[in-house]
Amino acid sequence: MTPNVPAHIPAPALVPALPVVDKPAATLRFDLHAKDVFRIGGRTWEFERRLDDRLQFLCLSDRDLLFVTDQQLAFMASTGEASIIVGKGRYAAFRAPFPNRITLTDAQNAEADRKLAYVEPCLRGHVEGDGPRTPYRFKRSRRKLMPLIEEVAAARGETPPDFTTVLNWIDLWTQYGSIHGTACLVGLHALKGNRRTPFGGIGEIALGRGLSYWLNPDVSTELAYAKVVSTVKAVKRSYRRFLSCEELARISTPSLRTFQRRCAALDQYTRDYYRISPSFAAKNRTYETQPLPDRPYQDVEVDNCTLDILLVDDESDIVLGRADLILFRCRATGMHIGYAVGYEAPSYASFVAGLRHAMYPKDMARFPAVNTPWPCFGKIENLWVDNGLHFIGKDIEAACRELKINKPRFRPKTPWYKGALERFFGYQNTGLIHLLPGSTKSNAVKLKDYDENPVEHAKIRFSDFEALLVFFLVEIHNARISRGLGLLRGVGDIPLRVWNEKAKNQPSGPLPPAELFIALCGEWEMRTIQNDGIVWDYIKYESPELSRLLTHPEHRSARQSGKGTQYKCVRDPNNLGRIYVENPYDPTGAIIVVPATKAHRAYAEGRHRHVHDLAVAHAKLSVKKALDFDGLMDSLAHLADLAVAARSKPGRKRVQRRLARFLHAQRVGRLASTVTPGKPADAGTAAHLDPLAIAQRVRRGGEREEDEPPQPPANRLPALPPPAAHGVDAVPAEVAEPDAQGPDPQGPYADLDPEEDDLSLLRASRQWSTADE
């Protein structure tokens, strides 16, 4: 039973079978002959042969081989990469290629139209306007073609051309008309005439040497022409043995006018490259518009500019000088993604500070007047820099290597590669900087037009200027139309809108920790820890966590070992409010954050190192101005006179002796002491701790002291009084009257012989002190 087929689908028997193609479709083959010359890819090639479906070409300049198919050659012809120059076989050979149809002048077009007016009637058999005639077949016959030629000439009102001339036009049109158009009928009048030089190859060599000498800076054509003449003379001297005088006379020297024409025919780029400099020659070129990247932060440009304004410190009112601005721009969106303002020459520290600001989110709480968002943050892939010394140093290369940022460089003296950033600096000066008080204008010449001193009129504080700069970047630049953006360059687009379109679909890599930037750009020194913390450039830093270093067994104090232990301290040059101290005793490399003390915290927090240096220099200068140097010198001289007068008095020695005796008595009184060791409870267990008692038992024959009856000491040394509390002669009551019931003051030393104990003798003579040990 046959299944039901819907009405809208034809029955299988009614559908015609489609042919199955198991081989590629056939293409037309070009009718080429050996020695046909083509222009392919800007080089001249000669067709040699056909190898199956491949066409073999030989390059006439370097003998290179090219193999293409007919279809590939057709595609190259459609795009203008391939064109025929000279043909063989059916095509006539020419000395030069046809002119380009685009370059034809009005006179050449009129010439081609005149020739075509004779060619077309001869090919179709009648003049335009006449009715159709009997079937016509073109023949190269004078009898058939001359009436047509004369009829066309009469209509044009000119003398008819010769029959053979018209035949040549017909051959050109039929063979090359379909390829070159009417350009094949244009006469090559510019290539007519004799182009052989009268001086031959030797003269050409001499002209070449003269040109190479003339391309040196500040060399005139007359001086370079002398090189041409000397070259020809040197060749004649070398050929004198082989040529006769008549043959040597035929070697002519190019004239000065010929050499000057050769110099004038040299292109401007070559002249500027060798006579001036390569960078100057590079300016004489067209600027290439680079394509925009696909992702934000894919390509970022960075450059610096010294601002034409003097800024004032917020607290000390010190004029900081002209600030330097480092700006980062995203090429994909045209957004300015970060900046850094420094007070010194462009440095590595200011570069890293701007890089950190570009990669992290922006804190807009400090700028309440800015209502437009600034959503730029992310990982930079390629950071394009110019050849400034502060951008190509080893430190910046190491920092980019740490952050895994590729850092390509522009060619020297090519500012057009970052033209948008260069134009912004000029627009910033005219649109913001020059409108503020304290502006230094662009240069000293423009400053003369204004009757004012910018140092005296510097009133803009740094915080106010930073707020104006952020407002200018976010509210004006990021929100205005930039003609370098958009799908059609020149129409433009808004950077913030382009950012929103590209950033919503492009992820960003993870951001590095903030400590890495401090480690990259931070300044470090080896410092010791004092009782009041760490002092660095007159700022003190203290934290309870420093006790971990002070109490470590390996820590050394200068009072104990003569040299204290030094620790590596790192600080951020843009913020002196805290330092980072390395803990060398921690194997994990812990970092201790030490803030400034309360007395210095308000000053150091957020303070730039350059501002601090200016403040220190200003403070030293103020103290130096307040110091009366002449009065100080007079006081020192008067003190020296008093010292000399005191030494010259006759009673000086007597006073010194009395003073020495008094000081000696005081020292002896302080050192006098009484040793009264108590008797141990168990003599058998504690007597061995007394070396003098052991020696005494050895002299007695080894008898134990506790077995003998107690005897009074033979010679007891008087006890020395303790230091006097109110005078030298005062003796405390407990020393003058010892306790009768207490232990023996002399203890186990009472039985020693005084003559054999030098220590007892020294104590008895009151001549012993700690200085004798």
TrEMBL record:
A GO MF term: nucleic acid binding
Domain spans labelled Integrase catalytic: 292-503
Upper taxonomic lineage: Bacteria, Pseudomonadati, Pseudomonadota, Alphaproteobacteria, Hyphomicrobiales
Chain segments carrying region Disordered: 699-773
GO biological process: DNA integration
UniProt protein name: Integrase catalytic domain-containing protein
InterPro entries associated with the record: Integrase_cat-core, RNaseH-like_sf, RNaseH_sf
Compositionally biased intervals (Pro residues): 710-724
